[in-house]
Write a structure and sequence with these properties.
Layout (H helix, E strand, L loop, with lengths): L8 E3 L18 E4 L6 E3 L14 H23 L4 E5 L3 E6 L5 E7 L3 E4 L5 H14 L1 H4 L5 E2 L1
Parallel strand pairs: 6-8
Antiparallel strand pairs: 1-2, 2-3, 4-7, 5-6
Helix pairs in contact: 1-2
Length: 148
Amino acid sequence: MLKHLFKVALNWIKKEPSTDRTTKFYSKSQHILIDGKPKLDVSAAKAFKGNPNLYNPEDLLLSSLTSCHMMSYLYCCAQHKIEVISYTDHSEATLVVNADGSGKIIVVNLFPEVIIADETQIELALSLHKKANELCFIANSCNFPCLS
């Protein structure tokens, strides 16, 4: 088994000094720093009083799953000598929020649309989405279904 370590630095600073010590509102915007990559500005989702112009953790989780599935799928296609011409997806994640404020994503649905060079390989190409889901590092790390 190979192990790889990934590191992220998060930087948040209170922007406006509050005179009301009982306030429960803090800015939800932060910077994510990953060595050698551009700064990623993140906030909470608009529904949770975040900055709607910034990425939010839910966006990033869904993006990770969508991207990882595509890369796993392209790997599977290469293994079977299927030439992929294009791959698009319009994925969705369903988040439920409980009365106590906790919540979780309960399902992710992927809707990949793939164009391949050889139409005689369509059936095989379609079947490889299941194998791609089994190989996807991010999907394997989640406790909810990721369906394609």
